[in-house]
Input
Amino acid sequence: MTKKVFKAAFISSLPVLMGYTAMGMAAGILLAGTVKLQALPFWAFLSSGINISGALQFIMVNWTEAMLPFAQVALLTFCLNVRYAMYGFSLIEKFRPLPLWKRLYLIWSLTDETYALEVDDKRVPAGENPLDFCLGVAMLDHLYWIFGVVSGAVIGSTLPFNSEGIDFAMTALFLVVLTDQCQDKLNRKAAAIGALSAITGRLLFSTGNMLIPAMIMMAVLFILFKRKLEPSVLQEERSHE
Output
């Protein structure tokens, strides 16, 4: 990786640095305030190093406190992160020329923000390898997340800090993203399906057991209404051409 590519990856990832540091610190503070562990900074480093899903980082605090069975944790993790597989389908051919270890790292490190940067080829300096840019972005975003979570854990474990309500930070972030996306009429039908699934899941199941049924219902509804949703997507794409 050349200095030029690394510089471009760093500049492009600066918005992610701001977001991941803030959200990571919130997750680390929540971890320190909820779970009492020895050598907490080490566990914060380990958990953020092997898991870069922001939503999962918050939820796993409650899972650890509740001592959920491994099978339930695995199923919930799959349902929460299955969307990354959809991102990966569009990058299979792009990553194919890479050595195996680089390819596996890029697949594993794929997040919403990292994906958005990796598919934007305009950010790659002229004459440079786009795959080196992707690798630089993935590594930097990964480091930002680790730094945020570990910093939050250190702050939360050394300073008197009331962590009550801080877990709402991730919910607030998703609400902001949802509000922005719903300004486009194209996304409102999908948002309505998601809202209906979540409300139905909450009415039929307890708070701790609603996620899996809601996600299953959401997937079924998307499949059933696929033909009605696709024409509006194609029409919107043509209007922008």
Q: What stands out?
A: The CA atoms of residues 122 and 130 lie 10 Å apart.
